[in-house]
Amino acid sequence: MMIVDLIDEVDFKEKLIALGAPVTQEQNLLEVQTTVLSWLKAYPEQTPFVKDLCMEMQKDTTTVLPEVSSVIAAFA
User: Fold this and answer.
1) Does the CA dihedral 23-26-32-35 come out positive or negative?
2) pLDDT value for 3
3) Is pLDDT above 70 for 4?
4) pLDDT (tens digit, 9 = 90+) per residue, 24-63?
5) Contact 13, 33 (CB under 8 A)
6) What three-state secondary structure class fits 10?
7) What are the C-alpha distances in Å from 45 to residues 6, 50, 55, 65?
8) Taking Cα atoms as reference points, which of 6, 8, 49 lies closest to residue 25?
9) 8-36: average pLDDT
10) Strand intervals (E) in the chain
């Protein structure tokens, strides 16, 4: 049996919330993307933390769902 780390929409939102991003679980991914980009514009000092989170989620040992990957790409 192969065990894979999987990042889905819920995990992604939880990680952003843990960073202090003003997102909720109720938001869809497009809303999350818009909210985080606005937040980063208002608080640019948070950008390195979001980028580090995105890099961590894109490790070779982690599988990121395609819809989450497209939002991560918007933060790059």
Assistant:
1) negative
2) 53
3) no
4) 999 999 999 999 999 999 999 999 999 999 988 887 667 8
5) no
6) helix
7) 28, 10, 17, 27
8) 8
9) 96
10) 5-7, 62-64
| DSSP β-bridge partners for residue 62 | 5
pTM of the model: 0.85
9, 67 contact by CB (below 8 A): yes
**Dihedral (Cα; 42, 46, 51, 54), 10-degree rounding:** -90
Residue 44 has a pLDDT of 97
**CA gap 76, 67 in Å, rounded:** 15
Burial class for 36, CB neighbours closer than 10 Å (0-12, 13-18, 19+): buried
Confirm if 53 and 21 have CB atoms less than 8 A apart.
Answer: no
* 2 or 21: which leads in pLDDT: 21
